[in-house]
Amino acid sequence: MLTKLLFGTALGLTMATAGIAQEKMRISLQLPLTSHLGENLQLFEKEVEERTGGAIDVEIYDSATLYKDKEVPAAVGSGAIESGVASLTRYVGDAPAVDVFYMPFLFNTEDKVRAAVAEGSPVRETLEAEIAKTGGQVLYWQAYGGAIMLSQGGPIRTPADLEGKKVRVFGKTLGDFVSAAGGAPTLISGSEQYLAYQRGTVDVGMTGVSGVKSRKLWEVMDTITKTNHANIEFVVVVNSDWWNGLSDDLRGHIEAAAGVAQEDVRNRMSDIEAAAYKSAEDNGMTIVELSDEDVAAWRAVAQPVFDTYLSATGDAGAAILDAVPSE
Question: CATH code at 93?
Answer without folding.
Answer: 3.40.190.170
